Amino acid sequence: MGLPGPKNVKVKLVSREQAEALLRQDLEEDRDHLQRLGEALLAVGLLPAGTKLEALAPDFNRQNVNGFYDLRQHTLFLLDDQPDEAQRPIVAHELAHAVQDANVDLDAAMTARRGSEDATLAFTAVLEGQAQATAALVMEGWLRDQHVTVEGMAGLLSDTAAKSAAEAAERAPTPWLGLQLRFPYVAGRELIAANATADDPIARGLLSNPPASTAQVLGPLTPALSPLRRERETQPLEGRLQLDRLIPNAKPSISTTLGRANLELLGAGLGEGWRGDRLESVRAGKKTITAWVIVFESPEQSAKVAAALKNASASGRAVVLLVGEPSPKVRAALLAREFR
Predict the structure, then answer these.
(1) Cα–Cα distance between 64 and 82 in angstroms, integer?
(2) Please, are residues 186 and 165 in contact by the beta-carbon 8 Å criterion?
(3) In whole angstroms, what is the distance from residue 41 CA to residue 58 CA?
(4) Tens-digit pLDDT profile for residues 112-129
(5) What is the pLDDT of residue 256?
(6) Which of 92, 94, 204 lies closest to 142, judged by CA?
(7) 275 and 251, same structural domain?
(8) Domain boundary among 192, 227, 262
(9) Residue 259 and residue 118 in contact, taking contact as beta carbons nearer than 8 Å
(10) CA pair distance 257, 292, nearest whole angstrom
(11) Which residue has the higher pLDDT, 218 or 29?
């Protein structure tokens, strides 16, 4: 990987049941967040009616684990029901995460992005894309030692891993959960491939200068974003909409950015021209009120999304589509009108 390694990594061999219990414990800590996020996604039609995200997500995630690196315990957990040969790429992949963690405090980095589903998904694409590329290089070297040589073997192995993740995502109980699995591996594979060089096959620069949004992952895929370009592509809707101040007796529930990748769930190409968004829910008594403000580059793209959102479910929602960068006053006026 061309990066300094961790000082030490603990390794534990556990049963699948033990691994699932550990993951369940971590996911239970996020149960409240998943519930509030699920309510907001339901309101704008990104989850099917009746979906309980806090119940589905833990089960789906546990079904798709063959080993994992725990950021807090700095421990590599391997499953005792995996044969040795199957463990080889898993160990390489998870140790890549240990190296990333040694160079960028991943727990802190993920915590810093907690307020944006979009930024979290974009950063995860870097992490999984690099880990895939690393595991492919390790396996290519091992096969060469076994006198098995195929031109472009590392690329083929990385493609295979991405396709495997995509196939698992197809079995997700909802498309939104499938996106959480597919995007980091499939888009991450393309991101690393676009930025890799002969001297840097895992695109190290992306770890210290990652894309800020899924739009950047799906866009030009350049390795280093200049300060000017970062400023130009900064989400114009960063920060809370403050619905709790606009709606009487409302209390904040969740405020996040969904980004281009989530828009694509409503239809292929609907994320093009995305310039920023903010999904926010508040609770007023027993009612949850949700607003999703999305900014596009052109009126044409905004109209396409408006047509797709006609099928969005649930009452008490508002979807405000804008072109250009709205001032806070314009934004507040639009939202106040929606809930008057």
Answers:
(1) 14
(2) yes
(3) 17
(4) 998 899 999 999 999 999
(5) 92
(6) 92
(7) yes
(8) 227
(9) yes
(10) 9
(11) 218
Please tell me the predicted confidence (pLDDT) of residue 203.
94
Q: What is residue 111's DSSP assignment?
A: H
Residue 208 exposed, middle or buried by CB count within 10 Å (0-12, 13-18, 19+): exposed
d(CA 316, CA 16): 42
Rounded Cα distance, 106 and 207, in Å? 10
- The answer to the question of residue 4 being in a domain is no
For residues 203 and 223, the answer to whether their CB atoms sit within 8 Å is yes
Domain range for 152 is 10-227
CA distance 279 to 318: 10
Q: Return d(Cα 151, Cα 149) in angstroms, integer.
A: 7
Is 182 within 8 Å of 166 (Cβ atoms)? Answer: yes
Same domain, 271 and 221: no
Residue 5 domain flag: no
Question: CB within 8 A of 333, min separation 6: which ones?
Answer: none
Q: Are residues 220 and 253 in the same domain?
A: no
Q: What is this structure's pTM? A: 0.88
127/238: higher pLDDT: 127
Report how far residue 170's alpha carbon sits from residue 191's, in angstroms, rounded to the nearest whole number. Answer: 21
Domains contained in the chain, number:
2
Domain co-membership, 19 together with 124: yes
- Which H or E run includes 232? helix 227-233
Whether residue 95 is predicted with pLDDT greater than 90 in this model: the reply is yes
pLDDT in tens, 178-229: 999 999 999 999 999 999 999 999 999 999 989 989 998 987 554 444 443 4
Q: Residue 332: what pLDDT?
A: 56
CA distance 261 to 271: 7
Q: What's the start-to-end Cα distance of the chain, in Å?
A: 56
Rounded-to-integer distance, Cα 87 and Cα 93, Å: 10
